[in-house]
Sequence to fold (300 residues):
Amino acid sequence: MVGRIGLTEVYRPPERKKPSTQIVFVHGLFGHSEKTWSFKPRHRSWAPLYLREGNPGGAGIEDSIFWPETLLPKVLPDAQILTWGYDAGVGGFFSSAGQSTIHEHAGSLLSDISDLRNTPELRAIPLIFVVHSLGGIIVKDALNQSSSTEGTRLKEVATATHGVVFLGTPHRGSKSASLGKIAYHITELTTSRPNIRLLQGLEKHSEILDRIGDSFVQTILRHGLSVYSFREERETRKYKILNTMVVDSDSAKIGHASEECGSIPADHRDMTKFGNPEDIGFKRVSAQLRRWIDEIKAVS
Fold:
């Protein structure tokens, strides 16, 4: 079962085989450690054949396909795969939201990963992050914190990180119809205390984003991090009548000389949901992960 908060392992290589890499998935605003990365078919008959084998008519098949667990291990059988969750909501009916800031979420992620990598052998395994939306900002800040700390167990996380795959991350915030503003106008009607501090970090020209972004460029240079940024190709529908690019193409890239960029033919929400190995989004993301793991093996 995938936990909503903290790290959950979803795949480990065969017993006694040391993982070549640890891949950590981090969701975004309103996201979930499993649902963000799950494709839900409209009908059971849409499930891939390999999931239907032994289940005539699709009986007994789960309604959704959690691709880091079901699809990715077939492409990356030697990687350990984990997903990390945090309170990414901004409130609900008759309830207040968690009040952690981006910086505090980043600190929690850094601590959880350090707890997992608690032996010299585990600390020697390279890390790769796959992140969506706000999750990318949190990972950037976590790596910044790791890079700048001295004399603690947290230092090794940035050193061990090989690369980050960003999916629809608003490096420069969103436009007038930003994630933060949309979320605030929704949640001010449903909760007495939305997480304003979390939302403010997503605004266009946010001082928080600028600070994290400037520091992350230095972190890239200091540790030789690889970066691949995917943008959404399709607009997201809101209010049932309007369409908008939640993260535009300029904001979806860091702009560093070593960064590679690509796109996924989906909107902001669906760019993380892949239903089968032939999905072009899955092929593009998994191919990049495979290339990085091959690079890691070549120098190990």
